Amino acid sequence: MSTVVKGAALTTPLSRMTALARAELTLLGRTRGALVAALFVPLVLPVSVRSAAREMDLAEAGLNTGTLVLPAAVGFSLLFAVYSVLVGSFVVRREELVLKRLRTGELRDVEILAGSALPAALTGLVQCLLLAAGCSVLLDLSAPSAPHLAVLGLLLGLVLCAALAAATASFTRTGESAQVTPMPLLLVSMMGSGMFVPLELLPDRVASVCELLPLTPVVTLVRGGWTGDLSGAEALGAVATAVAWTVLAVFAVRRWFRWEPRR
Amino acid sequence: MENNGHEHVIEVTDLRRVYGGGFEAVSGISFSVRRGEIFALLGTNGAGKTSTVELLEGLAPPAGGRIRVLGHDPYTERALVRPRTGVMLQEGGFPSELTVAETARMWAGCVSGARPPAEVLALVGLESKAGIRVKQLSGGQRRRLDLALALLGDPEVLFLDEPSTGLDAEGRRDTWELVGALRDRGTTVLLTTHYLEEAENLADRLAIMHEGRIAVTGTPAEVTATQPSRISFELPEGYFVGDLPPLGELGVTGHETDGRTVRLRTRELQRSATGLLLWAERARVELRRLDVRSASLEEAFLGIAEDASAGRATGTTTKEYAA
Predict the structure, then answer these.
(1) Do B6 and A4 touch (CB under 8 A)?
(2) pLDDT tens by residue, A203-252
(3) Does A23 touch chain B (CB under 8 A)?
(4) CA distance to partner chain B, nearest, from residue A158 (Å)
(5) Which has the closest alpha carbon to B190: B21, B280, B60, B69?
(6) Is a pLDDT exceeding 80 seen at residue B149?
(7) Sorting pLDDT into bands at 50, 70 and 90, what band is B311?
(8) φ, ψ dihedrals at A56, nearest 5°
(9) Which residues of chain A are within 8 Å of residue B108 when distances are taken between CB atoms?
């Protein structure tokens, strides 16, 4: 007997995801509405944070305008350029039966989701770097004193938002409802994750609840990266919270994600 | 031994599929497909064809039974199976905003040993549409794009779920030619269809599914041979079946009457028809709407659907003769 093996090289997870991500990037560029929201909202909202900052006693919290606005801007970018965009694209691909078609091929499930998420995650990453550069110039933000924390926070945030988007898409039936289902996380994060109001300025009891929200650890780590005020234990706690939310989201996706529309 | 696994590229044993609501779409079917064979699953809508093919493609685990594709379980051992199979789903599944060329390039990046995308597009006659967005393609063009992508990796096994639905007559011919040529090069093809002509033209063997089960399987000739030939006509006023010569002597194996219409079943068509016509000649009776037809796949197909609903029919009397 002989084992039939094809002469040609097999694809690798990386090559497959790259091909998928390239197509998704093209699609992202052609979805005007999503693109505008993704690119401009995170640039506009920080301005309103800045005006709100004038009402606050930032010095008491050890902050200045720059260390308030930049972590908030990173949060906006993750929420609008990554999370919301991905909820929509996962749902639309499912409606178009693209996800089902992809599953007939060599791509594994996790590669389909990760490959599809890559362009939005890259958009978010580039946007955050531009925002950091912009804040440094416009708001006299000094160089970060613990850059590793900021980088860690940003990367955790990207993975977390992609996972939360897939989890949200699990409970979103149509492209229209994808306009609404991301709202709860958007609102809760903007109110409670230290984006408009730093947790340091909230009553202790409220703050300790807010610390457990999905995006709080990201904002905390990025802010701590610039101020250098974060203790090792605090940083570890933030990382643990972000990881816990990611695990929870991945569990929800494995349990409830639908690969084809309900008929 | 192992050779067996290569001889039978697809082996299905007691396969069952049950959906969330408890609906059993596939109720214990078994069949096998040899290397280089075209095997057609025929059936009416809802017969369980697509439900079966999706299990073979490894999209879902079966509720019961066993599947081997190229010797492996397509669901649990997908990494071993997928690089060697090509799939065409019943309905597209391409982002509408990508162009044909972009779609093909994306798939090529996900397929081991992919042929150049332009080559497979030319194979299905879509080369002139490369720059067109998928949403602007006609239904038939989308089917052909789907077929092109299924062929990208030069698969050993090809699953085609209703490959020619939505195609015009010419497109259907082209698809048949293409699939036939693939078989000649050794590709094993499993396709579903509700076009009898397609199964008759293409399939080396076929199975007719009905309500989740395989009603009959074999080569098109074998399946046709399971069915009797038919003669139908209208008796004029005043004549009854009893006035005909003894039907058993004419080689008729059964008959039905429905008002004035009589339908005879026979395995000796010439003898039965001759006897009937000689009687009519002698009795100076005109048999209106006389229809004499040999068994065909269509008869087999309709026969299976009829058998299922025969018990429910009223106003029709059926009589079977011992062979």
Answers:
(1) yes
(2) 999 999 999 999 999 999 999 999 988 999 999 999 999 999 999 999 99
(3) yes
(4) 24
(5) B69
(6) yes
(7) very low
(8) -100, 155
(9) 19
Count of domains observed in chain A: 1
**Predicted confidence band at B84 (pLDDT cuts at 50, 70, 90)?**
very high
State pLDDT tens for residues B25-47: 999 999 999 999 999 999 888 89
pLDDT of residue B313: 42
Query: A19 lies in a domain?
Result: yes
Helices (H) and strands (E) in chain B, counts: 11, 14
Please give the Cα distance from B150 to A94 (Å, whole number).
Answer: 20
**Domain enclosing residue A203, as ranges:** 13-256
Contact by Cβ (8 Å): A92, B97: no
Q: Which residue is associated with the tokens 């699990």?
A: A170
Closest CB from A9, A19, A99 relative to B110: A19
- Position B282: which residue type? R
| Contacts with B98 from chain A: Cβ below 8 Å | 23, 26-27
- At B15, the amino acid letter reads L
Question: Cβ contacts of residue A194 below 8 Å, gap of 6+?
Answer: A71, A72, A75, A210, A216, A219, A220, A223
**In whole angstroms, what separates CA B270 from the centre of its chain?**
29
Q: Are residues A186 and A79 in contact, defined by beta-carbon separation less than 8 angstroms? A: yes
Would you say residue B323 has pLDDT above 50? no
Using an 8 Å CB-CB cutoff, list chain A residues near B92.
96-97, 101
Q: Does A102 touch chain B (CB under 8 A)?
A: yes
How many Cα atoms are found within 13 Å in the side-chain-facing hemisphere of B63? 15
Question: Cβ separation of B106 and A22 shorter than 8 Å?
Answer: yes
In total, chain A counts a number of residues equal to: 263
Q: Domain for residue A161, yes or no?
A: yes
CB B28 within 8 A of CB B15: yes
Angular region, B218: left φ>0, alpha ψ -120 to 50, beta rest? left
Domain membership of residue A8 (yes or no) is: no
CA pair distance A224, A220, nearest whole angstrom: 6
How is residue B8 written in tokens?
């039978």
pLDDT-derived band at B108 (thresholds 50, 70, 90) equals: very high
Q: What is the average per-residue pLDDT within B191-206?
A: 91
- Give Cβ neighbours of residue A92 (< 8 Å, ≥ 6 apart): A175, A178
Query: Does residue A212 belong to any structural domain of this protein?
Result: yes
CB spacing of B97 vs A20 below 8 angstroms: no
